[in-house]
Design brief:
Residues 691-754 form the Protein kinase domain. The protein is α+β, with helices and mostly antiparallel strands and 754 residues long. It folds into five domains: 7-106 and 198-278, 2-Layer Sandwich (Gyrase A, domain 2), CATH 3.30.1360; 325-410, Elongation Factor Tu (Ef-tu), domain 3 (Beta Barrel); 421-608, no CATH class; 624-656; 660-753, Phosphorylase Kinase, domain 1 (2-Layer Sandwich).
């Protein structure tokens, strides 16, 4: 059989013309199927194209000769056009190790994402960090649900004007529909299913990836005798091998050239065997709504420090609080088992089998399955079903993620913050002491929502003291990455543990991503230099917050200055939903940069951070006069409140029959503390045409979303809560609070509730 050493050997009659010989590319090398010592070392001349796809997508497939060629060669074709086998499965699997195998995966989905905002769009919709990739590079990325349950792992190629995704056949339509659904009005993005307009071949040569010298996902475009082909490093199930993307019109000629020079054709049956032996999870088996992306061990395809994306909050919490309860493993078994069979250790069920293959020549029976982390790991013995013995083993595809998982869960990053003041400062922790690992107090009653909120606010302010000092020392408002943030949260919790406070307080109150540096909150400010460019070298904070803030008058002036600067930042940012972040940045700047006494001073902690500090006796005497004065003023306010209350009661009683329009007008003026408005239900019914199906946008957490138009012409999105999804007013308020504080350039701010 002919040797296969370089890509030009595959296409001897289709090589580039001599006019393009000035551009030379290192040959794509493979081990020869024939062990002849003769070596072919010719160079490939290329005509490199930087187009998004190097062939025209407009013509429909017109060449059906490939299927005829495969059928003549012995291919068994299913009703949906997929090649099951060439009656050579064992030979094809041998060729993977000893030569070259080629498989037609044109039934896999190809999705083209184009438009000016394509990178940011995919960055927000999947787990990989697309912003660090350049043209000619690629990666794996996972599409997940909002709770990080797995949909599919896609192979992505970043091209000049588009990103091409290769997805599983069973998720092609779902992912295409999902991506289209999440395009916002202002997004310049186009989603196109190009599966029928392209062909995809995979070439397997697993043992010689080191010869290639190019990173996984790298790809180039070649023009072979007028037939454009994109060649990429990697083949969906491993980093070894190559992917060939081309026009259907070129597919038959390319296939013949590959087979004509010694490659062994492989059908989908052998490909499935290879998938399991490699340990690559697939939708419907390992990737389902039952398992999250980290349980599937897809760490290599997940970025932990890129900022906001779908499923990010769940993923960061899983990492920070060690919430990964099970893991996908390979299981070497003594005899065949069925997918779905239970996995047991010492008679106790600890997992289940998801896939199984007998391997090459039925000599390598191997299953894939999820096993509880504390029950078994590599090398441990398990029982499958009733009596089949098995051993937990690592498999190549999943092994790629081991180092990433260890780095992410061990938090090798060192926290740069000093939390010593948590033990020194006399802060009041009473609101936090009632919280524990269950949502109830010791007497069985529910923990008041107010206690949770007050405790979390106290802890955020307390954490902010260290962040202000960090700002002073580094000029950075936030921490550099998610690992550092998670490490600091753990260290902060350790200080709280020393005060005999509940060990899960930070899991109640913090999300590690909220302390990570990002340009997408508060006027793109990340450093003091950014602050100065936006606001100038001096603001009202510099005069209002410099002195000792234990003086109440000075404190009032500082707080007022803080609100003025916050409003300036919101005006610069243009997004009112960033108001909380801008206020937090204002606090950090006032305490860390402006105040002469520093963030750990009593004045800064009590005034700027509003931390409730325990007062000693002398402090009480010093403020005794103030207390009496405030008490007198309080009585006056109480009297005025009673009069006002009587007036409101009378007004409601005698004007309750006013028309709905008047009530709606009044309701729009009732602002909630987060600047949102209480609307009347009738207003939103009119805005959405009684929640008409034609205005349906999609379903989100806890409800269905409709587009609508308010009476003043404002376009809005209206989420109609599904009552069965809620557990009362507390959960509704929590949903409103979450929406109010969502921060993303493609999200609109909350206008109001009803």
């Amino acid at each position: 059989m002919a040797s296969l050493y370089s890509a030009n050997v595959l296409f001897p009659s289709l090589l580039f013309s001599s006019s393009s010989s000035s551009s030379v590319v290192t040959p794509l090398a493979y081990r020869p199927y024939d062990t002849s010592p003769a070596k072919i070392n010719r160079r490939l001349s290329s005509s490199f194209s930087s187009a998004a796809l190097p062939f025209d997508l407009s013509p429909p497939p017109i060449d059906h000769d490939l299927l005829d060629t495969m059928t003549i060669a012995g291919a068994k074709v299913s009703e949906d056009g997929v090649i099951g086998t060439f009656d050579n499965d064992e030979e094809a699997l041998d060729a993977v190790e000893n030569g070259v195998a080629v498989v037609d995966l044109s039934h896999y989905g190809r999705i083209r994402v184009s438009g000016e905002d394509r990178v940011q769009f995919l960055h927000n919709q999947s787990t990989a960090n697309f912003e660090i990739l350049h043209e000619g590079q690629g990666c794996d990325t996972v599409f997940v649900t909002p709770t990080a349950r797995t949909i599919d792992i896609a192979h992505a190629w970043v091209m000049k004007t588009a990103i091409t995704l290769v997805v599983s056949p069973v998720t092609r339509e779902r992912i295409t529909h999902m991506l289209k659904k999440y395009i916002f009005f202002a997004d310049k993005v186009e989603i196109q299913d190009i599966t029928e307009q392209t062909s995809l071949f995979i070439m397997e040569a697993l043992s010689l990836a080191d010869i290639v010298g190019q990173p996984y996902g790298s790809h180039k475009h070649y023009n072979v005798n007028g037939m454009p082909i994109t060649v990429g490093v990697g083949n969906i199930i491993s980093e070894e091998g190559y992917s060939l993307l081309m026009s259907p019109a070129a597919a038959e000629s390319v296939w013949k050239a590959i087979i004509g020079h010694g490659a062994i054709p492989m059908g989908s049956n052998a490909w499935e065997t290879l998938r399991i032996l490699q340990g690559r999870p697939t939708p419907g088996k390992e990737l389902t709504d039952e398992f999250n992306v980290l349980e599937a061990n897809l760490w290599n395809a997940v970025s932990l420090n890129k900022g906001c994306y779908k499923g990010q909050e769940t993923i960061s919490r899983l990492v920070t609080y060690d919430g990964i309860k099970q893991r996908l493993w390979g299981i070497r078994v003594s005899s065949p088992v069925e997918p779905g069979s239970t996995i047991s250790v010492n008679g106790k069920k600890v997992g289940k089998v998801t896939s199984f293959t007998t391997g090459k020549r039925a000599s390598q029976p191997l299953g894939l399955g999820y096993i509880k982390r504390k029950a078994a790991s590599e090398g441990d013995s398990v029982i499958i079903g009733d009596d089949v013995e098995g051993t937990v083993v690592e498999v190549p595809f999943l092994a790629l993620s081991i180092s990433s998982a260890q780095k992410s869960t061990n938090f090798s990053a060192t926290c740069p913050l000093d939390f010593g003041y948590v033990l020194r400062a006399p802060w009041s922790s009473s609101n936090c002491k009632v919280l524990n690992s269950t949502p109830q107090l010791s007497n069985g009653s529910a923990i008041p929502t107010s206690s949770k909120g007050q405790c979390c606010q106290n802890l955020l302010s307390l954490f902010g003291v260290a962040m202000a000092q960090h700002l002073k020392e580094t000029s950075l408002f936030q921490l550099p990455n998610l690992e550092t943030s998670a490490s600091c949260i753990q260290e902060f919790q350790s200080k709280l543990n020393s005060l005999s406070l509940p060990s899960n307080l930070t899991s109640f109150c913090f999300d590690p991503i909220q302390f990570v540096n990002t340009p997408y909150i508060c006027a793109s400010i990340q450093t003091i230099q950014d602050w100065d460019r936006k606001l100038g070298n001096s603001t009202v904070l510099n005069s209002g917050c410099r002195s000792d803030l234990e003086d109440l008058t000075a404190c009032d002036g500082c707080v007022a200055a803080g609100f003025r600067v916050q409003q300036q930042l919101i005006a610069i940012d243009g997004n009112a939903s960033h108001s909380t972040d801008c206020f937090y940045f204002t606090i950090l700047y006032a305490a860390g940069i402006v105040n002469e006494f520093g963030p750990e001073s009593t004045g800064a902690m009590s005034c700027i951070f509003s931390i409730d500090l325990k007062k000693d006796g002398s402090s009480s005497k010093r403020h005794l006069a103030l207390i009496f004065g405030l008490a007198g003023a309080g009585m006056a306010v109480l009297c005025m409140s009673l009069v006002l209350g009587l007036y409101i009661w009378w007004n409601k009683r005698w004007r309750k029959n006013d028309d709905v329009e008047m009530e709606s007008t009044v309701s729009r003026r009732r602002m909630r503390p987060n600047t949102s408005v209480w609307f009347k239900f009738q207003e939103l019914e009119r805005a959405t045409d009684s929640f008409s199906q034609k205005n349906f946008i999609g379903r989100g957490g806890f409800g269905v979303v409709y587009k609508g138009t308010l009476a003043d012409g404002t376009n809005v999105a209206v989420k109609k809560i599904i009552e069965s999804d809620f557990q009362g007013n507390d959960e509704f308020c929590n949903e409103v609070d979450i929406i109010s504080n969502l921060k993303h350039r493609n999200l609109v701010s909350l206008r109001g509730v009803v």
